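In this section we walk through a basic example: taking a raw amino acid sequence and producing a predicted 3D structure, encoded as discrete structure tokens. The instruction is simple. Fold the sequence below.
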Amino acid sequence: MSATRVLVLNSGSSSVKYQLLDMSDGSRLAVGLVERIGEQTSRLKHTPLSTGESRERTGAIADHDAALKAVAEELAQDGLGLDSPELAAIGHRVVHGGKHFTEPTVVDDAVLAEIERLIPVAPLHNPANLTGIRTAQALRPDLPQVAVFDTAFHTTMPESAARYAIDVKTADEHRIRRYGFHGTSHAYVSRATAKLLDKAPEEVNVIVLHLGNGASASAVRGGRCVDTSMGLTPLEGLVMGTRSGDADPAVIFHLARVGKLSIDEIDTLLNKKSGLIGLCGDNDMREITRRIDEGDEQAKLAFDIYIHRLKKYIGAYCAVLGRVDAVAFTAGVGENAAPVRAAAVAGLQTLGLAVDDGLNAVRGDEPRLISPGDARVKVAVVPTDEELEIATQTYALVAGY
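The resulting token sequence is shown next.
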């Protein structure tokens, strides 16, 4: 295949993140972000990697159509336009693919209809993802558009892990099951961890901890996900920046009956006003650790709750996997917050887990081990690269299309 470039688009409700990659060597040619779409204060920041010098546009960008046209203009200015014969495909991040989409998929009308049908279980994400796809289709109707789903990596979970213990007929009627998210990150990091250990993914059992403002854990056996912490939606699981993670479902009934909160108010509470920000008023781990250093007890309690939940999942996934070769920390907090990594494995020596304080304190952009040399279970920091994963999956599909 002569065309080797892939444009990766991550369309949010009011933003578009993008990267242009050359899959002949995996190099990035340009990166950028359009934010505040639909406002008078819209902003586009574009960086061609040939120079590393960013350009910015400010002013109203009315909608995603205008945003992508602006992106195309910026790329064209660098000789990387969407009309280039070297562009093989456009890869789109789609958050929810349900049970149906287990692999990257070339978009057609049926695929669009199914993504739209899943909007009720991903009301914040799938509409924006659809808009990005349709806009890109209009700009390059001749080019393959590929949807890469956050949920796809987790479709290998056994039914014993994926099903909730509720009435089967009701669950099936309303598509209620555990889907999991951050799948492109978990897929990339689990493979990169195997490479770090100089082993094939099929030989390695890994616990991946994707810790950002959104956070999730996965148990990966031989390259296949067998359990993950997020569920029907990204609300379940770990304590997150603004999301509660695991909570007794009866909390919702109590808030409705006793607190007189509406369903929408409870939704907002659990998704946007809980987690770290609900516990201490901050969802930035850097600020929380700074406050702890100054003796702030509320910040310390929030940190302790965060770590307690994280340890529970590490222990649970050790039990699920039986044998664990590595625990990999990734994403913003996982890659940069040494105190979180140290606290998460503290006291877990009987599970073979420990970190070397000196190695843990080192910052870097490359995958690295932070456990003692003789550790039975390796602890790693593996920077995630979701855009490269999306581009890799997209190119692999269209190269043989």
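Looking at the output, two observations stand out. The longest strand covers residues 27-35. Residues 237 and 245 are 4 Å apart (CA to CA). In the next section we compare this with other chains.
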